[in-house]
Write a structure and sequence with these properties.
about 130 residues, alpha+beta, 2 helices
Amino acid sequence: MKETMNSPVKVDPSINLSSEKVISVIVEFKTKPAKIAVLEAEAQGMDMTLDKAKEHVEQSHQAFEQELHTFLDDNKVDYRIKHRYKTAFNGVSMELPASEIKRFMGSSVISRIYPNEEVQLDPPIQPSDQM
């Protein structure tokens, strides 16, 4: 991951930020998913209820919506939110021109941006029963 323009947002270096091509990305928010936030708080000796952690996740999605308006809508950038993640991962998958990702560098919500790539694992080879 590389930081762009001294931004706290890390962008996967495989993303060509000068391309006008529409790409699919995964946007990870700084706020941890609720169950992870509770476990991390407990490990640090702090109190965090699951309801409070879920509220933080919802707030991160609301803040992202506001940033979308400021960074993209106000600049007439075409984009599409494909999926919102809140349980095992906190963030969204979306499509937008790669060159427009630079607009997110001032985000207070986003931690990382990855290409949304399908990964396929080959199943393990089962030994054949030969007698």
